UniProtKB/TrEMBL annotation:
Coiled coil: none
UniProt xrefs under InterPro entries: BtrH_N (IPR026935), DUF4872 (IPR032369)
Domain of life: Bacteria
Ranges for domain DUF4872: 155-324
Domain Butirosin biosynthesis protein H N-terminal: 14-142
Protein name: BtrH N-terminal domain-containing protein
Organismal lineage: Bacteria, Bacillati, Actinomycetota, Actinomycetes, Kitasatosporales
């Protein structure tokens, strides 16, 4: 059995920040999960629906791996990413850093992992791998998936080779810190303003505050959008609250990030953003509860209420991001 020593699993909620935390702590950089999420400008929103989709998708963060790229750039980290179509080379990319004493991040489809529940395909899942033997791989995943876990080498190979939405070609990555360690506090303002700019100026109406507004109109029709509302609506609500989002579709994480930032930066704009995201997080959880209730009861009025709240959230988050964008002025 080959393992990297001094690996610490914490009670984290989101897969990508979980893996980043493991890799960075091994480099001597210890940041909270909300700080990792915020410095990576992770917050976003997307509403997506198409004819070939079984049910609409609500997303609350940037695309898979964009958070990692953002964080590495912001902290001046050396990010080495390797991809290949060859399973043999993919395995070599993993064992080389582990044999050298360094954990490695993997992007894969969570469906194939032995320990993962519920069994849904998600090609943007990220884990940290720190060891292996002849039969199993040893990983760190989110707290809800067990923290320090193992899966068979066969299942890991299947997860890494999977193809479909958001998958990557056996992607693995490592991080290395510069000799002069960056000060996260000095990267707070650029991270916040970049996130705010993207949220306020989305290229299409499905994204950012415009996407939230669009979702508010579309959600009212969701009972007619599915042939199994008792399955699809509670599932959508579950994904918003418990599928590695930290609750409230990642708004809890961003609220925590802004709260931590107020300890380092004295700004009325920052306090305004934090106050609005504190309120927004509560409303997002309420929206999820209304969507679940609509599916369970068939009561369309619940979706009308959810749509009204989403309209309010579009305005609230727009105001929050407008205040936060002023930090760079």
């Amino acid at each position: 059995m080959t393992t990297v020593t001094n690996i610490e699993a914490r009670g984290t909620q989101h897969c990508e920040t979980t893996a980043l935390g493991v890799l960075l702590r091994h480099q001597g950089i210890d940041l909270s999960e909300p700080m990792l999420f915020g410095l990576g400008s992770g917050l976003s929103f997307i509403y997506w629906d198409s004819k070939n989709m079984g049910f609409p998708f609500l997303g609350g963060r940037v695309k898979p791996f964009d958070l990692t790229r953002n964080l590495a750039t912001r902290l001046g980290l050396e990010l080495l990413v390797q991809e290949t179509t060859s399973p043999r080379r993919a395995w070599e990319h993993v064992v080389a850093p582990i044999d050298a004493g360094h954990p490695v991040g993997l992007q894969l489809d969570s469906y194939h992992l032995d320990y993962f529940a519920p069994k849904v395909h998600f090609g943007g899942h990220v884990v940290a791998m720190y060891g292996y033997d002849d039969r199993d791989a040893y990983l760190v995943d989110t707290d809800q998936q067990g923290g320090t876990v193992s899966t068979s080498l066969t299942s890991l190979a299947q997860a890494r080779a999977a193809r479909g939405p958001m998958t990557a070609k056996h992607r693995s990555f490592t991080l290395a810190a510069p000799r002069i360690r960056p000060s996260p506090q000095g990267r707070i303002v650029p991270a916040i303003t970049a996130c705010a700019d993207a949220f306020l100026n989305p290229p299409i109406a499905n994204l950012g505050h415009r996407g939230v507004e669009k979702a508010g109109k579309a959600v009212r029709t969701w009972l007619q959008r599915t042939d199994d509302p008792q399955r699809d609506l509670p599932q959508a609500a579950l994904l918003m609250e418990r599928a590695g989002t930290g609750g409230a579709l990642f708004r809890n994480l961003y609220r925590g990030f802004l709260a931590e930032c107020t300890q380092h930066l004295d700004s009325g704009h920052l306090r305004t953003g934090h106050e609005l995201y504190t309120e927004a997080a509560t409303l997002w959880t309420e929206v999820a509860a209304l969507i679940a209730k609509a599916g369970e009861s068939g009561n369309e009025q619940c979706l009308v209420q959810a749509g009204t709240l989403l309209g309010e959230l579009s305005r609230m988050e727009r105001e929050a991001m407008q205040a936060l964008s002023c930090l760079g002025a």
